[in-house]
Amino acid sequence: MLSDTIAAVSTAHGEAAISVLRMSGPLAFEVAQKLFQTRLPLAELSARTAHRAQVSDLQGSVLDEGLLLLFRAPASYTAEDVVEFHGHGGLLVTQKVLEAMLQAGARAAEPGEFTQRAFLNGKMDLTQAEAVMDLIHAQSTLALRAAHEQLGGAIGKEANALREELLPVLAHIEAYIDFPEEDISPDTGEALTARMDGVIQRAQRLIATSEQGRILRHGARTVICGEPNVGKSSLLNLLLGFERAIVSPTAGTTRDTIEEIIQVHGIPLRLVDTAGLRESHDDIERVGIQRTQRELERADLILEIVDASQPAVQSQRVQLPAAVESRRLLLLNKADLGIAQGWENGIAFSCTGGNGVEALRDAIRDIVMRAGPLMAEHPVAINTRHKACFERVAERVSVARAALQTGMAPEYIALDLREALEALGEVVGKIDVEQILDVIFSSFCIGK
Description:
Strand order of the largest sheet: 3-4-5-6-2-1-7
CATH class of the largest domain: Alpha Beta
Helix content: 40-55%
CATH superfamily of the largest domain: P-loop containing nucleotide triphosphate hydrolases
Largest sheet: 7 strands, mixed
Number of domains: 3
Number of strands: 13
């Protein structure tokens, strides 16, 4: 693959002011020589500088005029020779220039292939490569910050720091295997145990950020629920700032879930408006109510809304599974009409007047951050793959620690420590991780 020269459109599909096409590989400059006409020969053009250029196909027909940039290896994104052409952003003209590149000797790039080459050529570790897509997909300021931290190598530095702590422990154990007459004294054993304790604690702190990482990357799943006609769809529209859901005095108008994404205090929320919970003889409405129940079971946050202008009745409250009860926020809607007897421990709210919106935003932030302030104490928020690796680290080092204290054969201790080091290597891609590369890079957009 690395012997191929690849080409792709790196800007989004559609009409725009400009489009960017990119080539990378050993023949990138040779292909460019066939297609682009500049004031000076291509070999004399300054690297990393924009040059006015005209592009033609192999038959000599002019396709476009724009800016040509050359990046000579290894000073490029992929560490290979890279050519970029910034032209007019029309669909047809962009496609024609790409076709000319392919006809001149390049092949179409696979999704994520530019970043994959950057990883394979040592320009970034695997966590930084993953951060590229996190940066592109970031939906909030906190998610953007987390992606920048990871792109700067924060997770890789943590993994390497753990590795530096473990290597001396493994070296000591293996030295004892080779020279058994050099006994491990109690003082040395305590020092090794202390080092392993430090590794376990540091790995566990990283594992604890995985839930925050999931929320930052995918948003906190926030379900709006309640009886019919209490203001669920009105609340969705109010938080979004536009009318997304139909609002009607007719009960049962919302029969399916409606999903949108907003940002609250830098936290992405995946808002889900649901069908009103009640007994219904309508088959379609019953299906919507069943979907509401399923959404409640997997919610990160539940916004229960009630009509607080009417006296409180127990049947008006949503019955939640015990596992998600702590994620409930009670909104006392229609508070502008007065709060009737029996309603307490909720946020006074009015969908029509917008009263209580700031109190709601603050309460949402407090619940989502209940496990600890996002990004405050730790500069990283790991993803599911990282979590599995760090869990293996903590597990294997814990087993090795117990084996050391019980006097088990050092060969077993060394084996567990090697497995922990292998897991750390998987985090940054320093060992053979071919089986996970395709999964990671297949989620990238073409041209990145």
